Amino acid sequence: MSDRDSKLIVGSEEWCALPLLGIPAVKARVDSGARTSAIHAFNIKSFKRGVIPWVSFEVHPLQGNRRTIVRCEAQVVDKRVVKSSSGIAEKRYVIRTPLHFADQQWEIELTLTNRDSMGYRMLLGREAMIGRILVDPAAGFLGGQIAQERLDQHYPGHVPGKSGLRLALLASNPELASNQRIMEAAEERGHSISFYDIKQCYMKLDPETPEVHYRGGQVLDQIDAVIPRIRPDLTFYGCALVRQFEGIGIYSLNSAEAIGHSRDKLYSLQLLLRSGLQIPVSGFADSPIETDELIDMVNGAPLVVKLLEGPQGRGVVLAETRKAGESLINAFKSLQANLLVQEYIREAEGRDLRLFVVDGKVVAAMERHAAAGDFRANLNREVHATTVKITPEEKKLAVKAARVTGLKVAGVDIIRSRKGPLLLEVNSSPRINDIEEVTGKDVAGAMISAIEKQLGWKRALAVAIETDAQH
Fold it and tell me: For the chain, which terminus, N or C, has the lower number of CB atoms within 10 Å?
């Protein structure tokens, strides 16, 4: 028998098992183009048993299912920089564990990384195949399929119970993808979360018994924290509602004051400048009589005209010529609309950065490219977005911008210029699903973790780890 005949023939996707990790079935992408194997992991925490480094982590073993969770621990054998398929380098923990496939078992190395946005929870790279496997890329599941009924038997009791915090999502549309992700992230961590339509809430202002009510007379007092996602046109009422929750002692992930600061674009820019942060040169005036001088302030045409009350990414227009700028400014002023004029950063070529800041840390970043015929990328139109390596200066700028406006959760928009990175906007209700899909980062999970940290809530797994670390 030749060496070739003794090897396993596998397809481009296969079911396998990682028995020591408690994972009886996981669908793997078999990819000889990738050197290193990887398993989807989140809530990764390092600890020591004696002097030996270990790592705990959680896995969503089933595609398209974030509610089934397996909690794992393994000894760390290395910490390695791995470049993803998108070209972004990431430092990952490396563990070693037996892989079971068909009737064979052998030990492989796995790196731990968040693969929620990927098609497969596990990637089997060529280092795990050498000497054992040949790949038929046209085939799949040569080791056998696994029916849903069998998967249900494999993972009984792996959906977390609702024993955690009681959370409320204050928003307008429960079907919005970002709102769905927040609720999913809360539930997968064992918390109870309810959706409340901002317009269906009402308040009792009383010195003795201040309350928030919901349609039908429900009193919202059995809540540990609220997550506000307020539409721009509901800023006034939404902030009043958040203030009411804060007044009765319920924590809000973003405070009413911070949301108000971020929604007042002129005031937020003044705050940022006062703190020494750089923005594009901007002008603001009440009278159209000053139009010419306003345009000169921002170095003439082309220039950008922004409505101060416009929703995120909308109400922003490029005036190519001075005459077009004058017409735009005068037209908006005749409608008694408040607006900013801003210098046009030509060298950005229709690109900007969206940095997602949670609790003082940049948890994800992407670069957005404007659609054809548009001058600025934004998430309310069809745009192309990619992962991006941000500089320490850009990271520092985003974190400070969020801190200055008082936001625990912020989408910070930055544009790259010859003068360095410049701040465009700080958003209090940034979209989540887009940046998670592009970067593969668990942004919604980071938001829930920030609430857990603020309220001093620890999961059972974290307590067990601390106990192990003390022995």
Answer: N
Instruction: Judge if 52 and 171 occupy the same domain.
Output: no
User: Following DSSP, what letter does each residue of 53-94 receive, concatenated?
Assistant: EEEEEEE--STT-SS--EEEEEEEEEEEEEE-TTS-EEEEEE
Mean pLDDT rounded to a whole number for the chain: 86
Residue 131, domain CATH: 2.40.70.10
**Domain containing 336 — which CATH number?**
3.30.1490.20
Identity (one letter) of the amino acid at 37? S
- 391: its two tokens: 């500089």
365 contacts 349 by C-beta, under 8 angstroms: no
What's the total number of domains in the chain?
A: 3
Specify the length of the chain in residues.
471
The yes-or-no verdict on residue 396 having pLDDT over 80 is yes
Distance separating alpha carbons of residues 450 and 447, to the nearest angstrom: 5
Q: How far apart are CA 378 and CA 366, in angstroms?
A: 12
380 pLDDT band, cuts 50/70/90, is: very low
Q: What is the pLDDT of residue 160?
A: 58
CA distances for 15 relative to 29, 39, 100, 455, angstroms: 9, 13, 9, 40
pLDDT in tens, 228-286: 999 989 999 999 999 999 999 999 999 999 999 999 888 999 999 999 999 998 888 76
Determine how β-strand 166-171 pairs with β-strand 225-228: parallel
pLDDT of 19 reads 95
Measured CA to CA, the distance from residue 46 to residue 225 in angstroms comes to 28
- Rounded Cα distance, 322 and 299, in Å: 10
What number is the average pLDDT over the span 56-82?
A: 89
The number of beta carbons lying within 10 Å of the beta carbon of residue 228 is 24
